[in-house]
C-alpha cells in the first residue's frame, strides 16, 4: 500500500510538472509572438493571441508607440525567462535587443490566451 501511494504521488508530481512546463513553453511562445508583432508594428499580430478582455484595451497607436521604443533599442534578439509563477500562469521575460532590453510580463488565461501583456524598460 505504501509503495502504491509513493508511486501515485510521483506520477501526480510528474503530471503537475509537465503542466507547468507546457504552460511555461506556451507562455514564452505567446510572449515572443506578441513581442515580435509589436516590434513589427502589427496590430493584427498582437491581438490574435490575446484574450477578449485584454484585446479590447489594445490600440493601433499603443502598438506603434511601443514598437518605436523597441526599434530604438535595435534588432530584437529574443526572450529569456526571468521569473515564473505557474500556479498563477504568470511569467516574466527579458526581451533582448541589440542595444538594450525590456522586461515583458505575461499572464495566461484558462483558454491558453494572453490575459495580460506588459512591457517596460529595464533599469539601467
Q: Explain this structure to me?
A:
The protein is an alpha+beta fold. It has one domain (2-121): Nuclear Transport Factor 2, Chain: A (Roll), CATH 3.10.450.590. The protein has helices at 2-39, 43-47, 52-55, 60-72, and strands at residues 76-85, 90-97, 100-108, 114-121. Strands 1-2-3-4 form a four-stranded antiparallel β-sheet. The longest helix is centred in the first third of the chain and has 38 residues, at 2-39. It starts with a helix and ends with a strand.
Helix count equals 4
The gross shape turns out to be: globular
**What is the structural class?**
alpha+beta
Detail the poorly predicted runs: 2-22
Strand order of the biggest β-sheet = 1-2-3-4
CATH overall fold name: Nuclear Transport Factor 2, Chain: A
CATH class: Alpha Beta
Radius of gyration: 17 Å
Mean pLDDT: 83
Identify the CATH architecture: Roll
Major sheet, described briefly? 4 strands, antiparallel
Percentage of β-strand residues: 25-35%
Order of helices and strands: HHHHEEEE
Report the count of strand segments: 4
- How many discrete domains? 1
Q: What is the CA–CA distance across the termini?
A: 57 Å
Question: Helix content range of the residues, please?
Answer: 40-55%
Amino acid at each position: 500500500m505504501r509503495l502504491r501511494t509513493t508511486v501515485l504521488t510521483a506520477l501526480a508530481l510528474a503530471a503537475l510538472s509537465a503542466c507547468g512546463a507546457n504552460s511555461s513553453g506556451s507562455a514564452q511562445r505567446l510572449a515572443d509572438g506578441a513581442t515580435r508583432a509589436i516590434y513589427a508594428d502589427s496590430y493584427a499580430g498582437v491581438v490574435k493571441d490575446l484574450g477578449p478582455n485584454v484585446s479590447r484595451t489594445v490600440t493601433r497607436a499603443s502598438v506603434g508607440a511601443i514598437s518605436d521604443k523597441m526599434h530604438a533599442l535595435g534588432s530584437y534578439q529574443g526572450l529569456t525567462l526571468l521569473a515564473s509563477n505557474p500556479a498563477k500562469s504568470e511569467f516574466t521575460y527579458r526581451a533582448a535587443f541589440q542595444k538594450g532590453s525590456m522586461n515583458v510580463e505575461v499572464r495566461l488565461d484558462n483558454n491558453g490566451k494572453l490575459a495580460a501583456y506588459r512591457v517596460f524598460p529595464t533599469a539601467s
